[in-house]
Specification:
The structure holds 2 protein chains of 2 kinds. The termini of chain A are far apart. In chain A, 33% of the residues lie in helices and 22% in strands. By secondary structure, chain A is α+β, with helices and mostly antiparallel strands. In chain A, strand 2 and strand 3 form a beta hairpin. Chain B is 37% helix and 17% strand. The relative contact order of chain B is 0.16. In chain B, helix 2 packs across helix 3 and helix 4 packs across helix 9. By secondary structure, chain B is an alpha/beta fold. Classes of the chains: A alpha+beta, B alpha/beta. Chains A and B meet through helix 3 and helix 4 of A and helix 2 of B.
């Protein structure tokens, strides 16, 4: 465990923080799930609608800005993170080596290129985080990768069985990706996360953000010790609760991902909604 | 024109547009300014709807386009998103070529929309209007400041909307007189019904967006640009050729002896110039084959 990880793991034991950021109940109520579902539906409608408008010639900045505008128009005032858009080779994080380079860039989309939209609004206190991949025109390689990603989506709930750990889950997902001939690009995310917890009762006051992430995301993660909030190889805690899962696979010239909320209860996991819901 | 009005719900608000002509033909998209409605393009819609698919949205808060509580809904991004979503309804293929026309504030929206249309945009026609970036640059000039006094007046909360709401006819007459529009070319109050109060929020939204517009580096427009400018416009200083050449790679400028509403004051001449521009950009509708 690195020095950074050790330092962060001390945070949850700071007196008073549990009172400020209470742990989410591991078995969410029906009302809670409905709140997350509303947030996820809105995020998906923004991503699907803007993806249908994106065309060659757009820049990542334009797409991300229109996503934020869409969400703002629908009542969102704060974000877990501002919208991300990655085009072409940036979808497999080629050329991205610093955290600042994840931000939407002036990169222009070209015909047949793949793009990813990643949207994370806070709606009525519920954090949601979704990812959506699409393509500007015909691209058979993209269609092939989408089929593999859909198979991985189907397989993921069964990986959260009793006794599973971050390592078993991440190794299984990596195995599925690699056996299909792709790279596991999610290892390039900060902390190599395959997913992260989502929270409710989150403040919607203020829209200050740093590196694209709203102050709420830093607070919700850091005040709970960060490490227990991130699903990666090092995660060893309970799996019950809600996770935003984001497997990201990389082909030669592009990457694709999906991201959506997984509900885990007593060794049983299910997606919060169907793929098109 | 009422029978041509269509509506749809966009991000929770009803949004309306006028649509005429054959939906298989190329699109001519007409964006109106303030205080106006799609009726301002009446001469152009009539003239071109026989050969093109003409579409003229009511801007947010105008007529049947539902007003918004939030000022951001009158901003450039939100209105661009309205128009893009509306275009997705009138052209589900998203592939039909189009030329976009913008007058006054409609030109702000046209400039913002242009880079989002990709290669389906075959041309942009601007009539007495600027991009927000150009307008913010011009506010360094005292001459433009003097002509833009009304923009500052409209920033006062509550008063302008209530005064205009009380005296809509007087306000419309005042604006038309000031803009040098002859009486016979003016729209009647009934033609801009419910278009005078809420859309003025565009000026408030734009003023808040000026700092961002100054920082924004606009890519040079690749599609051909035609500027039709009434040189007696009391609201905008006549731009120099250099100003436009920096904004677009291929620019045609026609300065006409008219006021702010050049397309209403000299409709025949404007239609002819538009026709020639459409030929130049290759947007002639296919001629019917002889039987």
């Amino acid at each position: 465990m690195s020095v950074l990880n050790r330092t962060l793991s001390v945070i949850p034991s700071i007196p008073g923080l549990h009172w400020l950021s209470p742990a989410a109940p591991s078995l969410p109520s029906r009302e809670t799930l409905a709140g997350y579902l509303d947030a996820q539906r809105l995020a998906r409608s923004a991503a699907h609608e803007v993806a249908s408008l994106v065309r060659p010639g757009w820049t990542e900045k334009q797409a991300a800005s229109l996503l934020d505008t869409y969400l703002y128009d629908c009542g969102v005032r704060s974000f877990f993170h501002k919208s991300f858009a990655w085009f072409g080779d940036r979808t497999r994080f080629r050329g991205i080596s610093k955290v600042t380079q994840f931000a939407p860039s002036p990169r222009v989309l070209r015909e047949s290129e793949v793009f990813i939209l990643d949207v994370a609004p806070i709606l009525k206190g519920f954090i949601c985080d979704i990812g959506y991949s699409s393509c500007a025109g015909e691209n058979l390689e993209f269609q092939k990768a989408q089929t593999v990603l859909a198979e991985i989506r189907d397989a993921i709930p069964s990986l959260f069985c009793e006794g599973a750990t971050g390592k078993t889950i991440c190794d299984s997902v990596d195995g599925l990706i690699q056996s299909a001939g792709y790279d596991a690009v999610h290892h390039l995310y900060p902390f190599s996360v395959l997913g992260h917890r989502v929270h409710q009762g989150v403040s919607e006051q203020g829209s200050f953000s740093l590196l694209g992430f709203g102050w709420q995301s830093y607070w919700e993660f850091l005040s709970r010790g960060l490490l227990g909030q991130l699903l990666n190889q090092d995660y060893r805690g309970k799996l019950d609760g809600l996770w935003a899962i984001e497997p990201h696979l990389g082909a030669k010239d592009f990457g694709i991902k999906f991201e959506e909320i997984l509900v885990v209860e007593r060794g049983q996991a299910r997606w919060l909604a169907g793929p098109m819901e | 024109m009422t029978e041509d009005v269509k509506t749809t719900e966009l991000r929770g608000l009803n949004t309306a547009w006028v649509e005429r002509g054959d939906s298989k033909k190329p699109i001519l998209l007409f964006l109106h300014g303030y205080p106006d409605s799609p009726e301002t393009w009446g001469h152009q819609l009539e003239y071109f709807s026989h050969r093109y698919h003409v579409v003229a949205p009511f801007v947010r808060g105008a007529g049947p386009s539902e007003p918004a509580k939030d000022l951001a809904r009158y901003g450039r991004e939100s209105i661009s998103l309205d128009i893009l979503q509306l275009l997705a309804q009138v052209d589900p293929s998203g592939k039909k070529p189009m030329v976009v026309f913008g007058h006054d504030l409609g030109a702000v929206h046209a400039w913002n929309l242009a880079p989002l249309l990709g290669d389906r945009l075959k041309g942009l026609v601007v009539l007495n209007g600027l991009s927000l970036a150009a307008m913010s640059g011009r506010l360094r000039s005292l001459a433009q400041h003097r002509r833009s006094w009304y923009i500052y007046a409209l920033q006062i909360p509550w008063v302008p909307e209530n005064l205009i709401g009380l005296f809509p006819e007087g306000f419309l007459d005042f604006a038309h007189r000031l803009g040098g529009l002859p009486a016979k070319a003016r729209l009647r109050l009934g033609q801009v019904e419910n278009c005078l109060v809420h859309p003025l929020n565009q000026y408030r939204a734009f003023v808040r967006e000026i700092p961002a517009a100054r920082r924004q580096k606009l890519a040079r427009l690749k599609a051909p640009l035609m500027v039709l400018w009434g040189k007696e416009d009391p609201f905008l200083v006549t731009p120099s050729a250099k100003e436009w050449q920096e904004a677009a790679q291929n620019t045609t400028i026609r300065i006409l002896p008219a006021g702010h509403w050049v397309h209403r004051e000299r409709p025949d001449e404007v239609n002819r110039l538009i026709e020639r521009f459409l030929e130049k950009v290759g947007l002639e509708p296919l001629k019917e084959k002889a039987a």
